[in-house]
Amino acid sequence: MGSLIALYLSLHKMGKDVVAVCNDTVPQVYGYLKDVQKITHDFHGSRDFIISLDVTNVKADKVMCKTRGNSLDIIITPKSGRFEAGMVSFPEGGFNYEAIIVLDSTDLERLGSVYERNAELFYELPVVNIDHHPGNSHFGKVNLVDLTATSTSEILVGIIEALSGDPKFIDEPIATSLLTGIIADTNSFQNANTTPKSLTVAAQLVAAGARQQDIVRHIYKTKPLSTLRLWGRALSNLRDEKNYRFVWSVIHRKDYLEVGASENESGGVIDELLKTASGADFALLLSEKNNDVHGSLRATNPSADVSKIAKLFGGGGHPMAAAFQINKTTLLESSEMVIQRIREYQRDIDRANQLHLNQGTSPVMRVE
Length: 368
Known about the structure:
The protein is of the alpha+beta class. The chain has helices spanning about 1-15, 115, 120-125, 150-165, 170-185, 195-205, 210-220, 225-235, 255-260, 270, 305-310, 330-360, and strands at about 45-50, 50-55, 60-70, 70-80, 90, 90-95, 100-105, 125-130, 140-145, 240, 245-250, 280-290, 290-300, 315, 320-325. The two termini are about 35 Å apart.
């Protein structure tokens, strides 16, 4: 969310007409960001409607238009002769956009209904793909994918500076949005993906006026009661797979309804609660969202690569944080299948480690 608002504010400041789109409803926690209310999730890219008149034989003298009730009349006066209905055609118009910039998405399908409803728009316009995930499919005409970056916001800092040509272009609202993205993706610089560069960029943004304390207060220290109640449901559903070294929990659709929480309020439960469980290599949260099952994975053992587990279900991400989605299903229908496949994966890892141990070679994953 931070990268989307930052780029929107930057392009708008450069005099561009920009539409900021997110497939999901913006979480209330980001309400402190400037112009966050300008983000829309109900986007339909419309074409120009063109009326074409063949003037090969009959020339036009005057063109006028006027509104008559609920009608818009276009009046064309010929210099001589007469216009006929057969001279009129309706060629397909173009879109009123120059380019599409996609942020923090490994492929177009992850854009959900925004892509599904506007596939022609994505086909006809140049797509700029800016991301930091290793599973990115390089779907854009221009691909700015930096696997060493901690977040898309970190990548955008250099892009915005280059586009503006002004080292002081990044003001307080833009800096706060960019720092929001970095803090959210590094879990306030606690994750293993935190790098010296991310800390340097963060310091640069704070110097530019980023409200670091406001960011931390809103994202980590302020929770609606509905969120706390939802997290309580996740904790009560917690299961410990000791033999396979992971913990997992579920949040059903009825849990959201009964505590009055929105689907995006489950976001922090895995980082702030589940991944703190001792003795586990990773944590998994399965939740029902938009008639699909969404899986979030977080590694606690640096030797565990949860992106490989996410790939079992068509997902992806980073070694320490990954996600996947199983479409058109429920937890009742799919949770046991997911857990069983992860158990099998862990058993395969153990067998491979034992084989390497017997052969005196390096293990696939260290088991502590």
